[in-house]
Each structure stands twice: as C-alpha cells, then as structure tokens.
C-alpha cells in the first residue's frame, strides 16, 4: 500500500508546514519511503516512485513526480522546498498532496506516479484536481478486468 500526505491551509494565506511533514520531521513522508509499514510478505519500503503536487495562494498548480526512492532523491527535496517557499507573487502551497508509491500493479513509470493532475472544463470555468489513490483500481468491462 502507498503512503500519502494531504495538507490544507485553514486560511488561504497561511503557509502550510509542508517542509516539516515532507522532509523535516522524524516521521516525514520522505522517511516513510524506507520505514513505512507494508503488508506481511511484501518487500519493505515505498521506493517505486513519489510525487508532490500543490496549489498556491494564486490558485496555480505545481506537480513534481519521479520514479525511484524519495529518500535518495535531491529532486524530492527540491520539490518540498518549492512547495514551502514564500513567493512574492503567489506565496507557498495552500493545498498539498504528497504520495509514495509501492507498486503492486502496473509498471514503475513516471506516468504511474501520483498525484495525477486532472484538468477539465465546466460551463464557464476550467478546473484542476490533484488525485492519488491507495491500492489497485480495476475497470469492469465485458472482458477480463484491466488494471488502471
């Protein structure tokens, strides 16, 4: 099973303690890449891929995903710093989603890393979602189930 972290600012301009939860704390998401519990019989660690996505105070979306181990990735630290950074224009993250993947289905690729950005149009507006899941999703159809 994967590891996830979600943070939401109580007020749109209050900075999130994202650096602490992503990197700095003893049980940060990065630490859970090696120390996070896994089901009995599974190899230890959540080392297949990672991702950090966030919305800033201006509503702009950033998403960084990579295959490999968050604990060994300087790019993971860069993404965490970027989410936490105070910008004169847009400020730090006000909504953040972090994810560590332990692949049980599907290839270990950047495309299969989470969060996933979903852009869609509503009447009179465009919307963006950042989505992550824990576990395996299967589509039901006329043929044998396909893993998504």
Please explain how this structure is put together.
This protein is of the alpha+beta class and 148 residues long. It contains 3 helices and 8 strands; from the N terminus they run βααββαβββββ. The protein has helices at 18-24, 29-35, 74-84; strands spanning 3-8, 49-56, 61-67, 93-101, 116-122, 125-131, 138-139, 146-147. A 4-stranded antiparallel beta sheet has the order 1-4-2-3, with helices on one face. A two-stranded antiparallel sheet has the order 5-6. Strands 7-8 form a two-stranded antiparallel ribbon. Strand 7 (138-139) and strand 8 (146-147) form a beta hairpin. Helix 1 packs antiparallel against helix 3. The longest helix has 11 residues, at 74-84. The protein starts with a strand and ends with a strand. Residues 144-148 have low confidence and may be disordered.
């Amino acid at each position: 099973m994967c590891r996830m972290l979600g943070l939401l600012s109580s007020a749109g301009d209050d900075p999130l303690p994202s650096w602490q939860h992503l990197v700095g704390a003893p049980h940060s998401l990065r630490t859970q890449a090696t120390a996070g519990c896994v089901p009995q019989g599974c190899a230890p660690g959540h080392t297949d891929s990672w991702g950090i996505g966030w919305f800033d105070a201006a509503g702009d979306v950033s998403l960084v995903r990579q295959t490999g181990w968050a604990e060994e990735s300087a790019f993971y630290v860069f993404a965490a710093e970027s989410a936490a950074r105070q910008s004169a224009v847009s400020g730090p993250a006000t909504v953040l989603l972090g994810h560590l993947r332990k692949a049980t289905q599907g290839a270990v690729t950047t495309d299969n890393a989470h969060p996933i950005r979903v852009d869609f149009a509503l009447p009179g507006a465009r919307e963006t979602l950042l989505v992550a899941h824990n576990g395996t999703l299967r589509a039901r159809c006329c043929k044998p189930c396909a893993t998504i």
